[in-house]
Amino acid sequence: MSRLSYFFKRLVKMDWKAMWKTTAQLKERSGKSRLWLLCDMLKCAVKYNAGYVDYKIAQMYNLNDAQRRSVITRGISNSIVRRMNDKAYWHFFDDKTQFNELFKEWIPRKWLLINDATTVEAVADMMTLPCLIGKPLEGSSGVGILKFMPEDWAEGPAAFLQLLKDKEIGILEEIVVQHPEMARMCPTSVNTCRIATLLGDKQEGIVYGFLRIGNGKVMDNVDCGGMAARIDLESGTLLTVGADKAGNTYTKHPITGTDIIGFTIPYWEEAKAMCMEAARKVPQMRFVAWDVAITADGPTFIEGNSFPSHAVPQFAAHYPDGIGILPEFRKFIDC
Q1: Counting C-beta atoms within 10 Å of the first and last residue's C-beta, which end of the chain has fewer, N or C?
Q2: Contact 64, 262 (CB under 8 A)
Q3: CB neighbour class for 116 (10 Å; exposed up to 12, middle 13-18, buried from 19)
């Protein structure tokens, strides 16, 4: 799809009310007029396939043309995914039960498919665990994920099974207990590493890593109020401040006071090796973003993403020199 056709396609689907609200926010942050911002957004949309959310999170109003060319925008990200990932194989990642089965050697926790064939006995077996996580079979951004405690199944397995169906839960899983060091950062959520593998034409490897950090909620996802910090791929140490989707930045976690910059992730080498080994199981999926939890026994998968979000890897706070993440991709592929 050409840049111009992509632009017009997005134009038709534009949420104009949200865009207008975004320009009001950016007017306050940048000191620039709404008219200037709208004109500049239009320029970036045509020239760089950037939507207004791209423009906001990368703070493109502060960037020159050379810096803007280094930003991964939605249009560029979509193009990479279409080129690298065969859609016939997306189901291994989009269906959480298929993912758990295919990558079970790295997923030791108990889980159960919830559908009309699920038995009361199977649910009762899951109820022996102290805490459970329920998820829709498909979905992203933490939508529909719920935590269940013993009080939720106090009326017995049949009532709990009906509750799960009413909540449209597709898979019930044993909760992951994270490494004490990861809990020191934020104990309310499992803080996961987003590690993107790329089986490129030039080379194969990990193109980026970010730690997603919760901020008081059950989920660490940035769409649920969490934040992210960039990981040094060699050492597993956080290089940047934590940043959230609203543009807030943190040098220390606002709840625990843990320093973000310099925090080192346990079992980092093992996490990288796990992702690369898993990436080669489905070579038709050449660009996958893996969500990895770190436990006391090592890394484990939460899920893999067939259509990786480009938002977290392009928060402006992660690139203080204004040079975005596209140069990292260009080490692996032409884009």
Answers
A1: N
A2: no
A3: exposed
Q: What does each C-alpha distance from 9 to 2, 13, 14, 75, 79 come to in angstroms?
A: 11, 7, 9, 11, 14
Q: Give pLDDT tens digits for 139-160.
A: 665 677 899 999 999 999 999 9
Taking alpha carbons only, the member of 43, 52, 61 closest to residue 21 is 52
Residue 48 CA to residue 40 CA, distance in Å, equals 11
Sign of CA dihedral 189, 234, 314, 12: negative
Asked whether the CA dihedral 97, 98, 99, 103 is positive or negative, the reply is positive
Domains and CATH numbers, the chain: 3-69 (no CATH), 87-96+178-329 (3.30.470.20), 110-174 (3.30.1490)
The string of pLDDT tens digits covering residues 43-75 is 999 899 999 999 999 999 999 999 999 999 999
